[in-house]
Amino acid sequence: GGWSHQGINMSIEGQAKLQLSSRSVGIFQSMSSIPPLSLFENQFMAQQPGRFTDGMSQVPFKFELPMKGLFESYHGVYISVSYFINCSCERGMMQKGLARSVEFVVECPEATKDEVEPEPFAITPESLENVEESSISVIPTFNITGRLFHKLCPVNLPFTGEITIQVSAAQIKSIELQLVRVESVMDSGNTAREATEIQNIQIGDGDMCRNLVIPLYMIFPRLFTCPTMITDSFKVEFEVNLIIVFVDGYMVTENFPIELYREK
Q1: How far apart are CA 78 and CA 89, in angstroms?
Q2: Which of 9, 40, 61, 174 would staple 245 via disulfide (CB 3.0–4.6 Å)?
Q3: What whole-number percentage of the chain has pLDDT above 90?
Q4: Whole-structure pTM over 0.85, yes or no?
Q5: Maximum Cα interatomic distance, the chain, rounded to a whole number of Å
């Protein structure tokens, strides 16, 4: 019994795949298709040619990743960083070869980073951007204060902060916390930048009590977030939007750029 084979070949590869949104293709006349960026590649034979007996056979293998030059695994919309183990086994004439590919996750921890405590924030009609001065007087009065506990955020710990509705003449319908990825692809001095939502969580429902401290708490989802990446070819950055939705349909958004890293 059993079957003969020509050896078990293993290849390990890591690559960053970049693509453009339909509206950004025109920016890059020479980049209708962008070749993947190779981050790491290794090939070896895990088992010499020979014969396997019927039943299950286990073939141990191991490999080392380079200490530098890798990025964390990340599955975005226009940028993704992936690492794969590819295994193939040729079985000779008249026998179909065997092949399997499995993704594995790479994490790159760093030492704890020091940061200055973020400033408290206040949202009022006067603080709003993109609003004409003549319109401010007709906006219902509100004063919303709060603070983020970190803008330099460990991706393996929750995002935290607090918000307080000091005053609001209009009834509030909902308070939401939106996590946004900002992906940029660069080439020949041109940059295509796209912001897309990762998740949106509700942190308050209905017309919240005034002067009540409401906690902000959000877990960064695995693979859809990663430490902030800034390279010559691409960037992956993150922002948090605090959204206050009023009963009359109007909403106010406060944007906070944040930097992510993985804490050891």
Answers
A1: 33
A2: 174
A3: 76
A4: yes
A5: 88
CA distance linking residue 56 with residue 59, whole number of Å: 10
Q: What is residue 25's three-state secondary structure?
A: helix
Report d(CA 246, CA 171) in Å as an integer.
6
- The answer to whether 154 and 110 are in contact (CB under 8 A) is no
Instruction: Give how far the C-alpha of residue 39 lies from the chain's centroid of Cα atoms, to the nearest Å.
Output: 18
Phi/psi for 196 (5° steps) reads: -135, 150
Give residue-wise pLDDT tens across range 2-33: 889 999 999 999 999 998 777 666 665 555 56
Six token digits for residue 4: 């003969």
Residue indicated by tokens 């916390």: 177
Q: Determine the Cα–Cα distance for residues 179 and 97; give it in Å rounded to an integer.
A: 45
- Does pLDDT of 54 surpass 60? yes
CB atoms within 10 A of CB 233: 13
Query: HSE on the CB side for 127, CA within 13 Å?
Result: 13
Cα separations (Å) of 185 from 63, 88, 198, 217, 226? 31, 34, 18, 31, 17
Helix (H, G, I), strand (E, B) or coil at 182: strand
